[in-house]
Amino acid sequence: MQLRAMTVNDFDAGLRLCRAAGWNQQREDWERFLLCSPAGCFVVEHDQDVVGTVATLNYANRVGWIAMVLVEPSLRRQGIGTRLMRAALDALSHCECVKLDATAEGRTVYVKLGFTDESSFSRMTLSSMPNLIGTTPAHIRDMGDGDIDSAVALDRIAFGASRGAVLESLYALAPEYAFVAENEAGDPVGFTLGRHGHGFEHIGPIVAPDLETAKELARAAFLRASRNPVLTDVSLHTPAWVAWLRLLGFSEQRRLIRMWRGANACSPELTRVFAIAGPELG
């Protein structure tokens, strides 16, 4: 088993492992990681085949993010995942805190590495978005190039660290899912982004000051999804938010546990986060 840095030539193998795990990522997701963190992405090779991957993101040395921990199904429980995790932790050693979003199965491994639970999210999916009737309110509008800085600032408060490069990438690849919510003075108070996936259109993050604004932002993005399958990774702090999504037809696919290791002093305002960007982005 050889651990080495990831290259663009490994994307096909990464996609193969994604499909084996039933994950939604596409090639541009792997490209985003290598572009944003060229020294923080690794693979494990066995007999010249890539059998494991991990990717990291460094959010301004405040929050390090670990993602895309994938291991060939036939080679699991042989220490490959732990080896990849240790490489990722070394790459993020300058960060105040390291976080990840775990499945219930993966959580066992991460607890042994010193991670602690922070919060929970629910991956909710809908096989076909219904034909929603109505118009988008005037204070919900399409995001433009000039709105990125405002979105990054709002996200910094909600998430706890700046994620400018990631948000810019999401906007560039799927601008049709990008919306801004304004207050009466015309100032941005919330936003949503989205992306295309292998099996689902992914809506998130959704950052908003209150439930009604979150619903309006989500509805605007859902309208753009037409009748495509949709997923969103939703926060559970507001039961009425989850209930509204269920009324639209969404159902829970699985739970995600956000975990942290280190100082965890970034003070995110999680009540503003109604949907995360995804377990691989935070």
Explain what the structure shows.
The protein is of the alpha+beta class and 282 residues long. The protein contains eight helices and 13 strands. The chain has helices spanning 11-21, 27-36, 80-91, 104-112, 148-159, 164-173, 211-224, 239-248; strands at 2-5, 42-46, 49-59, 63-71, 97-102, 116-126, 140-142, 179-182, 188-195, 201-207, 230-235, 251-262, 273-275. Strands 1, 2, 3, 4, 5, 6, 7, 8, 9, 10, 11, 12 and 13 form a 13-stranded mixed β-sheet that branches.
Summarize this entry quickly.
The chain has 8 helices and 13 strands.
Which features would summarize this protein structure in a list?
alpha+beta; Aminopeptidase; single chain; globular; 2 domains; 13 strands; 13-stranded mixed β-sheet; 282 residues
